[in-house]
Design a protein that fits this description.
Layout (H helix, E strand, L loop, with lengths): L1 H22 L4 H10 L1 H13 L7 E5 L5 H8 L4 E6 L2 H13 L6 E5 L11 E6 L10 H9 L1 E10 L6 H10 L9 H11 L3 E7 L2 E7 L2
Length: about 220
């Protein structure tokens, strides 16, 4: 519960700034900086959508859904249903507002909760956890929970331990009292195997590892 409250405070404060990375509602110079230094966020977004095909036949759980960029796009592309969960009330309000505006409320549901407390009635074809494990000190329980809620596969991201962005990011978030954690390829394999995933594909994207973890 303490971790949930700490993350809630941070992401409530960061919700508008975070969403602007995707909406580009900022100065031209800031947009150029995002395209130069945050290109991996756009790339993993498109890669996730591509690897989710056929989207129209599947159900999705978006863990740490933020302002709904993944969830809403999946719904737009015909997903059977999408559930987004996040610890930030502000993020969830944005998601609900956008779903209502686009008339896709019938295929989306956004819930203010933590993955460890979420108790759905059934599992999902695909679980997505982008930019979530960066902020969890002990990720194994979370990964085990994700595996338990996954029928087919999970898409996950992990920040690379040895990258030119590691130290600046650690300092920047540390000043905001938000711990961030980094990973080696070996540790990722070990964690996912311990969580129960049977097949693991790791693709390096700049300062991030993109992971496809199969339940069976």
């Amino acid at each position: 519960m303490k971790r949930m409250l700490e993350q809630k405070d941070f992401w409530d404060a960061e919700s508008e700034r975070f969403d602007a990375i995707y909406s580009h509602k900022k100065s031209r110079f800031a947009v150029l900086l995002d395209k130069s230094f945050r290109w991996v966020m756009y790339r993993r977004f498109e890669f996730t959508l591509k690897q989710s095909e056929p989207i129209h036949a599947k159900t999705f759980l978006d863990v740490g859904c933020g302002t709904g960029r993944y969830s809403l796009e999946l719904a737009r592309r015909g997903a059977v249903s999408v559930v987004g969960i996040d610890v930030s009330g502000r993020m969830i309000k944005v998601c609900n507002r956008r779903a209502k505006k686009e008339n896709i409320e019938d295929r989306t549901r956004f819930i203010l909760t933590d993955i460890m407390e979420y108790e759905p009635d059934e599992a999902f074809d695909i679980c997505i956890g982008m930019g979530v494990l960066d902020y969890i000190k002990n990720p194994l329980p979370t990964l085990t929970r994700i595996r338990g809620l996954t029928r087919e596969k999970a898409f996950l991201s992990f920040p690379v331990l040895w990258s030119w962005r590691t130290l600046p990011r650690k300092i920047r978030l540390g000043l905001k009292r938000c711990p961030v954690y980094f990973y080696t390829r070996r540790r990722i394999y070990g964690l996912l195997a311990d969580a129960g995933f049977k097949r693991i594909i790791i693709k390096k994207m700049g300062p991030m590892y993109f992971v496809i973890a199969f339940r069976e």
